[in-house]
Amino acid sequence: MDLPGKTIIVIPAYNEAKNIVKVINGVRKTLKNVQILIIDDFSNDETSFLAKRNNVTTLRHPFNMGYASSCQTGFKYAYENGYEIVIQMDADGQHEPESIQNLIEPVIKNEADLCIGSRFLNGKIYKPSIPRKIGMFLLGRTVTFFTKIKITDPTSGFQAFNRKVLRVYCTDIYPAKYPDADLIIKMHFAGFRIMEIPVKMYPNPNKSMHNFFSSIFYMIEMAVSIFISLFSKTYILKTIMEDNNEYKT
Amino acid sequence: MSIKLEIIGIAASLILAAIVIYLLRNKRLKESYAIFWGVISVITIVIALWYNGVKILTKFLDIISPINGVFFIALFLLAILSLYFSVQFTYISKKIRTLAQENTILREKLENLEKKMIP
Lengths: 249, 119
Fold this sequence. Notes:
- The structure holds 2 protein chains of 2 kinds.
- By secondary structure, chain A is α/β, with parallel strands linked by helices.
- Chain A is built from 9 helices and 7 strands.
- Chain A has one domain (7-248): Spore Coat Polysaccharide Biosynthesis Protein SpsA, Chain A, CATH 3.90.550.
- Chain A has helices at residues 20-30, 47-53, 67-80, 100-108, 130-147, 163-169, 181-189, 212-230, 233-243, and strands at 7-13, 35-40, 57-60, 85-88, 114-118, 159-162, 194-198.
- In chain A, strands 3-2-1-4-6-5-7 form a 7-stranded mixed sheet, with helices on both faces.
- In chain A, α5 runs parallel beside α7 (181-189) and α7 runs parallel beside α8.
- Chain A is globular, with a radius of gyration of 17 Å.
- By secondary structure, chain B is mainly alpha-helical.
- Chain B folds into 2 domains: 1-49; 67-119.
- Chain B has helices spanning 3-25, 31-49, 51-60, 66-117.
- The longest helix of chain B is centred in the C-terminal third of the chain and has 52 residues, at 66-117.
- The chains are: A alpha/beta, B mainly alpha.
């Protein structure tokens, strides 16, 4: 598959030396001449080295900054370098590169500004643990309630979006910790067209980034963030207007 | 208030003022924070020298024991200070995040330029 000219795949990675080469090769096998960008979040292993050895543009944080900051570093790089379409995917091999074609299609055809890959819409491969399933279900229902768009996988890190969304992702609107359900609500408030499509996702071969206590803390933090988002519509629109003249029309 | 307590109160506030001046002189405390701690020192001296003032204030606020009034004011001030520091912390975290991201991108650009310049 050939991607349109200015398209980049942003892959945040932390201690993914085991999977990174497999992910890079998987993407290259599916997509010809694609620009891949790895953001190494100060890994302790050879993630950066392996990515560079495979001729992939690699950015390495000066210290560990977390998943959201890694993604945002990649988005800032993409924006500065004039990329029109961004695909975000994980470095742990969970996301099937073959799904990129479906994911990117609505963005190329200008049917959506932000396209989220859902593991549940054709949910045969991915089976999360029960607490995770409950959490995802609650968050999905909350997002659907506020946006009136059916969202089944609000925590999906497999997304494709255009430059307008990319610009907003480079601002303060993008969360510092978890870019999940709250971000979808914010983007809806900002007037972007959001779509969810089925993708293939495999269970995480490593441990989840959340343990029991951090999962509880995550849900509380997300609930607060969603609550605040509901009252942030004016701030979101103001930030977009201030940050980018093309939104002023 | 007994003479002993007055002396302890004055000594404590003077020690606090001395620490604040020392930290300021060594540039380990910002002037804006020093103002807050300076005010705290003055309040402590006032309370130590003029305890009746606390009694009048607590009576005005319908607080039975004057010492409870002192604790209430102290806790309130500390809560305000904590909130202020939380705001500062958030602001600084945001700045550090932006700086680190820009540093990361610039370093990549620099490496690319070096590669081009050094064959």
